[in-house]
Amino acid sequence: MAEGRAEAGAAGAGAAVALVERGADPGELVALAQQVQQADEFIRANACNRLTVIAEQIRYLQEQARKEWGTSCPHEFLGAYKLQHDMSWTSSENIEKRDAEISILDKLLSQQAVLPQCTEPNFQGLTK
């Protein structure tokens, strides 16, 4: 078995997943894969349960709003906006464009770029 253990926060409260060395017994790899699969199933079930509760709350609030407002809204509709993760507001006309921009930035930030090792300062390109 491996020398150390890694905490698997997603696998559950306090669960530890053993690291497997190269050339380890295939049975250990199968057991580890089963643990990962069980953790994934647990996470999916937990997320599904929470989303179900949220959906029920939304339906209840929608019904309550219909009862209170009836067929007429008490205020004039002025516009629709989306609150972005950076706490800025985007008008409904620009939501698709802004979401596309944010998606591109997320992809750029999630890629792990490896910079070449350099032992000397390199200012090439900064003065040109």
Write out key terms for the chains shown.
two-stranded antiparallel sheet, 2 helices, mainly alpha, two-stranded antiparallel ribbon
Could you tell me the mean pLDDT? Answer: 79
What is the strand tally? 4
Task: Please describe the biggest sheet, giving its number of strands, its sense, and whether it closes into a barrel.
Answer: 2 strands, antiparallel
* Contiguous runs where pLDDT drops below 50 for at least 5 residues: 1-11
Radius of gyration, taken over Cα atoms and rounded to an integer in Å = 25 Å
Biggest sheet: strand arrangement? 1-2
Alpha plus pi helix count: 2
- Listing every helix as H and every strand as E from the N terminus to the C terminus, the arrangement reads EEHEEH
Straight-line distance between termini: 56 Å
Tell me the β content.
Answer: 5-15%
Structural class: mainly alpha
Global morphology:
flat
